[in-house]
């Protein structure tokens, strides 16, 4: 996404779990978008958050999990939740489980946007949804979408029979009728929205220490059916994300804010967990919707601070896993590898050592990457993995004092002086740390275009080994002073 706002801020409570987190307060009003498939719920969601965050396609059933974004209409700010299309299917089926997720979204909601397709008019399924909503105490604002032109006039009139008052006729695709939507929402959530009008500072305005105090942005990535959603549900202690035996259930990248109690210290720490769609080999991804899901997952990696690559213990490490890991490293993210389904792994010790060796061989960009055996079924290894995620974020965010950095640099040059190609010396003068997250360094000198790649690797490996940047990507840029006599 860039996902800075797209992943929203749902908060969840642990119940009957080996973790002990509590429900964090969400001050912004929560508004749920509900309707049958293909009435334009995700298009409306994207319109309200001001970005194309939810996947949108002509085929019904694209959205499967709840997705949260920060919305604003005329300075009325609220959290808006996109939900799966409401279908009348068996509770055990995938559409039935999607409906259960939608029903769960109503808990704690401040308002519902009940969306119908005004061109299609009120259908029997719309009437069923209306009956269900009348059994809840959540205020309902009726929304007649696709109301541009005159084709939706009759459908708009039909909505009065559902018993939710005057509808807001809109066109989510073209941005029409947002003023009418505001008029419908303001009496319901306006007072609470005014109380929550304070906007927190962006990450660009925060110091390194303040960034570390922010919730850890942790993305779970991997191939389809590795158990990403199941693992997150285990952490949360509830069925927050849709799971099942079908591969590729997750399509959108979904974030859940959560509080985790570190058993080692007793501290309660905030985490934003990001579930992503499974990433198959590129040649196997042919459908438009899956391509969109994979692109969405890649943007989730951009948003994250730490990425957990989840492997399936029954399948081991495959080339596709290394490609996903390389993508995360190239984006400068801190990376952890977790082997899921450890409770059913065969020859576990040999498997663990084999995967560690393959990672060291296949990912030469980083060494000493944290590797954990976990089980989404039993909860094994989850606390250790999360503790390591906070530690590696600190490393990823670390800044080395200039004096210590240049003392290391001088020692490195003495131990292994730069080469002198064709008898001409390459002079490396000093080094500075240009940034963090990931750590970035600039080396100043002359004739740097002649410096061999092997010597650059020597410097990068030294920074990792001697300055404590093991297991995180390190960037080194070479910079020569401008020649005042050189013509432009």
TrEMBL record:
Residue positions binding GTP 2: 222-229, 275-279, 340-343
Cited InterPro entries: G_ENGA, GTP-bd, GTPase_Der, KH_dom-like, KH_dom-like_a/b, P-loop_NTPase, Small_GTP-bd
Function of the molecule: GTPase that plays an essential role in the late steps of ribosome biogenesis.
Gene3D superfamilies reported for this sequence: 3.30.300.20, P-loop containing nucleotide triphosphate hydrolases
Binding partners and assembly: Associates with the 50S ribosomal subunit.
Gene that specifies this protein: der
Similarity annotation: Belongs to the TRAFAC class TrmE-Era-EngA-EngB-Septin-like GTPase superfamily. EngA (Der) GTPase family.
Full protein name: GTPase Der
Residues covered by the EngA-type G domain: 29-193, 216-397
Record GO terms (molecular function): GTP binding
Residues bound to GTP 1: 35-42, 82-86, 145-148
Record keyword rRNA-binding present: no
GO biological process, one term: ribosome biogenesis
UniProt cross-references to PROSITE patterns, sorted A to Z: G_ENGA (PS51712)
Keywords recorded for this protein, A-Z: GTP-binding, Nucleotide-binding, Repeat, Ribosome biogenesis
